[in-house]
Amino acid sequence: MEDLTGRRLVVVTGASSGIGLAAAVDLACRGDQVVLVGRDPARLQAAAEQVREATGERPELFRADFAVLDDVRGLAERLRAAYDRIDVLANNAGAIVLQPITTVDGFELSIQANHLAPFLLTNLLRDRVGRIVVTASGAHRSGSLDPDDLNRPLRRYRPMNAYGTSKQANILFTAEAARRWPDIPAYCFHPGVVRTRFGNDSRLVALGMRLLPFRSPEKGAETLVWLANQDPDRLRNGAYYMDRRLRRPLPKAADRQLAARLWTASAKAVGVGE
Known about the structure:
By secondary structure, the protein is of the alpha/beta class.
């Protein structure tokens, strides 16, 4: 068997395309053992082939749909069975949802896929994880999070408000995780405006992506890879970064009381203890 001594194991969610795939390729090229998590089996297999072509080694694959919390629970069980230690958990999976959709679990799809699902996964893997990196966004400025009503965006649905609310939740979750679990470094970052599969079903969003200055997935993934590798002593636990620099999110994404309320509401929503 191959000697993996000294290699880190990195689990990347949303790894079948975009930022997640670019990060997985970069990390694997640096010598890490990467594990790809994605929803679509065909795209996941294609992503694995890209990693293999770049590194000569085929990564392990785990399928899970974050729109179904039982899928997330099953994913956590399979990861726990496969690995005693996950050095880095990159919570990168996410989506912009163009119309109001309620999941089988009863939640607005953006808040579930982008926040509740990774919140649940991280809690279920907490004792195995050495570091947490969360893909957030500057879009948190359009968020209007209410922990007492996680489905609030459904009542007057606007895609960017729902997305921004979930990204606001990502930043608050990261900071609160650092406070509650000081033994596990946790960081989040804004990748910039990245051309990915987001909004493929909307001609308006696709037009916006053509008009806006955008980055390649590789450029968007740079800060994720940097946060996964940087010495924790050089970083601020629970903080928000962009372009490998510490940034200050808007006050509504830095409110400690709001972060604590969100944690309590999220734990209740997904059925884990605080």
